[in-house]
Amino acid sequence: MFAHWIALDPGSNSLRLYDYFNDREVCLKTCIAYDKQKMIALAEQALAYVYQNKKDIKVRYPIKQGDILNDVTPLIRQALKELKVSQNVFKPCFLVCLNEDVSDEQKLKWQQQLAACKVRKVEFITPMEVLQTEQACFIIHAGHSYTEMGIYAHGHEFAHKIIYFGGMGMDEKIKMTIAQKQNCLISNEDASALKEAVSQAFKMNKNPMLQCMAMDRYGKLVNIQIRASDLWPAMEEQILQVVLWAKHCYMNMGSEMKQRLMNNGIMLSGGLANCFGLKEALKHEFDCPIICTTKPECDIIEQMKGLK
Description:
Elements lengths: L4 E6 L3 E6 L4 E6 L2 E4 L2 E5 L14 E4 L2 E2 L2 E2 L4 H11 L9 E5 L6 H12 L5 E5 L1 H5 L5 E6 L4 E7 L2 E8 L3 H16 L5 H16 L5 E7 L5 E7 H24 L3 H10 L1 E4 L8 H9 L3 E2 L7 H6 L4
Parallel strand pairs: 1-9, 9-10, 11-16, 16-17
Antiparallel strand pairs: 1-2, 2-3, 4-5, 4-6, 7-8, 11-12, 12-13, 14-15
Helix pairs in contact: 4-5, 4-6, 5-6, 6-8
């Protein structure tokens, strides 16, 4: 029987889908704006409501660490619409990539919400299953809400760890830094933009004054400025945790496996992979090649394309 398969990489920051049959791909921002309980905008359009100073308007981020926190069906329906998936004849089947920590209860939620979008079948796969190779490999997938790492060879797992350090942790620390230094609140999106600005500046060996919109203690929007180096400690803390746990996984390997891993290098993927400091810190600690694609945030969905 014909099956119309769709790959889904449900990130906390971005939702990526790939249509195997039509060879189409779509990426949506993982957020929805609500006025009370009514949805008023989703994905990129929802960001326009971030600084709406109205108590009934909320921007929600429905996915965290693979778990469903709020209704994701509006995003799934929009993605299917953009993929131009017709459900009149064949209901699609979904291959969903979730980390190993996601509970059976949460997988049931995914099945139920996808069923509400007229999906007839759901299968699950983990990031490590998607990314590992036959040869000895050390994988570090550094995402928005968590980092997953593992050591594999010929289909066997030798080490595996999930830590809840990533881009979201950086954003939260940046928000705290702004609150302490400027006595203002900034949005998740502005924190993320500042993180990206710091990363780009440091790659060019610059330390500029950065600015963004913030809400002061009186509830008014103001423009604030802060030096890039003042935000670096908020970012470095997350990077050092990733390196620390990677070292812990590696140190438990035998000498022969260590040599094979160092020869093959560390495979670094995920949205945090291009952030300044992570590749550099791993290179300094392990003194081996750090293998990273030009768009590491897309590595999961790219590798999933060959699975059906």
